[in-house]
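Below is how a single chain appears once it has passed through the pipeline. First comes the sequence as given, then the structure the pipeline wrote out for it. We keep one example in the README because the format questions we get most often are answered faster by looking than by reading.
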Amino acid sequence: MKRIVIDPVTRIEGHAKKGHAKIRIYLDDDGKVNDTGFHVRGFRGFEKSCVGRPFPEMPGITARICGICPVSYL
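Resulting structure:
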């Protein structure tokens, strides 16, 4: 198994912070993707305010939290 690591991913939600995120891609012996992982080390905190909210409300709430990328949330 081969592992490809992209570290750091520096452009997360418009913020250039070195080491802010990491992507891991695991390939099997034939070179096909076997597993992936995306790890964000930053903390924004809005996730806690979303706990317990009805699912249909979430696109509208999260799209208004980030003014840089609201379309991607919708």
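Helices lie at 46-50, 58-65, 70-73.

See the next section for the split statistics.
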